[in-house]
Amino acid sequence: MKTELGLAGAVVLVTGGVRGVGRGITEVFLAHGAHVVACARREAPTDAEFAACDVRDETQVAALVEGIVERHGRLDVVVNNAGGAPYVSAAEASPRLHEKVVQLNLLAPLLVAQHANAVMQRQESGGSIVMISSVSGTRPSPGTAAYGAAKAGLDNLTASLAVEWAPKVRVNALDVGMVRTEQAHLHYGSAAAVEAVGKTVPLGRLAEPAEIGHCAAFLASGLASYVSGATLRVHGGGEVPAFLAAADVNHREDS
User: Fold this and answer.
1) C-beta of residue 7 within 8 angstroms of C-beta of residue 221
2) β-strands 11-15, 127-134 pairing
3) What is the pLDDT of residues 91-138, one digit of tens each?
4) Of 143, 152, 161, 171, whose CA–CA distance to 227 is shortest?
5) Closest of 177, 222, 218 to residue 197, by C-alpha
6) What gap in Å lies between CA 24 and CA 28, rounded to an integer?
7) Which residue of 44, 198, 218, 234 has the smallest Cβ count within 10 Å?
């Protein structure tokens, strides 16, 4: 792949970068010639440099960022990807579960960003932070209510940090829709169900992890040098309004 994004040699941290969407992001940055450090709580096969870290733990996050700077001399890009939540009714979920979901999906990205920003502010070239958020932050999120609320907070956090940390550090977010990962069946069921769910998206399919990676790489690159505080929706056109299926007027006849 060509390196027209100017990411060759960049030092990039991808949290949760060894599985699912994070793996796709890692692979895209590697293809553009970046040196990627992929962190997760548990190691998994990856072509990137791996670092074990629980991004909810400040001591571990501080050690992670310090270690990257010690080994590579700088930190150019952070992609805050680690996150997620189990499907549980808000009425049935415990306060402890809600607390853990918010911690992972909102407070942990803030923690990582704080430590990265401290390094980037000292660098002549500054740096770029990309938050991997979700469309769940912009629409109802039944079954993952705390997750949706945390992602809404992450979008707002992105805009605030972009103002506070300018001009040295750009901060942007991706509001990601449904993605076909190795765990898609846990969210949508059988292969047939995954295909059916994909058909509800205007583009007719779920995203591939690399497609999220391409968007993250763009926001991190010099091509987006005047983009900060933005939230880019990467959702294949979003969701078709449910009332259209129920209405019995204005339906297009298939030819």
Assistant:
1) yes
2) unpaired
3) 999 999 999 999 999 999 999 999 999 999 999 999 999 999 999 999
4) 171
5) 177
6) 6
7) 44
CA 147 to chain centre: 13
- The first and second tokens of residue 164, run together, are 């506070």
> Which residue has 């998206």 as its token pair?
201
Reference 155, options 68, 218, 91, 230; nearest CA is 230
pLDDT tens track for 178-211: 999 887 877 788 889 899 999 999 999 999 999 9
Single-letter amino acid, residue 208? E
Active site residue 226: no
Catalytic residue among 87, 147, 188, 226: 147
Q: Write down the H helix ranges in 46-104.
A: 58-72, 95-102
Q: Would you call 203 helix, strand, or coil by DSSP? A: coil
